[in-house]
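RECORD TYPE: inverse folding
INPUT: structure tokens
STRUCTURE:
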């Protein structure tokens, strides 16, 4: 388990940094938050397909494999002391990772089309449906991610594997994820979810390295 422990620690650190990198790319480099329509979003993606493709690969696909590694490692560590909660955490983590990978692949299909010479106007009619599906799977709300983080934090706390800070952050992530699924509160919930989960990942990496 020594090598697996190192991989799990790295996965947790990567999870935190992937959020930071994603926000930097979308908010600073692409100014994605300034868009108000689907056509504006499509224009940003079509103008920067390589950057968006690479960013999506990291923050959706590779991130998801990190979640799978984390969920599996912690299940192996905690299954004897908390068999039911650890199994539920593993299942929820796998579901979340699968949804995120699907969302990432959909987005990467679009950027691949742009890199192959398709122009934005050719996808304009289909873009709204693509965007809705992608958001529904991996970005429109963070309920599944919140449930996974909350369950795993509870499991670690009951097994005395994590500290108080990780547990509190896990509760905040769960609250943010739940709020993000409510109408008109999505942005607030996602904000709480993202910031608290960045800190949760770093705190989790510390807990794994100490146990």
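DESIGNED SEQUENCE:
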């Amino acid at each position: 388990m020594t090598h697996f422990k190192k991989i799990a620690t790295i996965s947790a650190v990567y999870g935190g940094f992937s959020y930071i990198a994603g926000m930097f790319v979308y908010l600073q480099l692409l100014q994605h938050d300034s868009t108000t329509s689907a056509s504006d979003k499509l224009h940003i993606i079509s103008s920067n397909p390589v950057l968006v493709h690479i960013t999506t690969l990291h923050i959706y696909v590779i991130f998801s494999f990190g979640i799978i590694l984390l969920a599996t490692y912690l299940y192996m560590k905690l299954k004897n002391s908390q068999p039911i909660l650890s199994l539920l955490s593993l299942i929820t983590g796998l579901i979340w990772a699968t949804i995120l990978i699907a969302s990432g692949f959909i987005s990467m299909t679009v950027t691949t089309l742009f890199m192959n010479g398709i122009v934005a106007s050719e996808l304009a009619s289909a873009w709204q449906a693509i965007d809705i599906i992608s958001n529904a799977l991996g970005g429109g709300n963070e309920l599944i991610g919140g449930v996974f983080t909350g369950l795993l934090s509870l499991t670690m706390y009951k097994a005395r594997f994590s500290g108080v800070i990780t547990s509190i952050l896990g509760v905040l992530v769960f609250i943010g994820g739940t709020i993000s699924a409510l109408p008109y509160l999505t942005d607030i919930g996602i904000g709480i979810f993202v910031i608290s989960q960045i800190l949760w990942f770093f705190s989790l990496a510390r807990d794994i390295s100490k146990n």
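NOTES: Helices lie at 2-29, 38-47, 49-78, 83-115, 120-138, 143-158, 164-180, 186-210.
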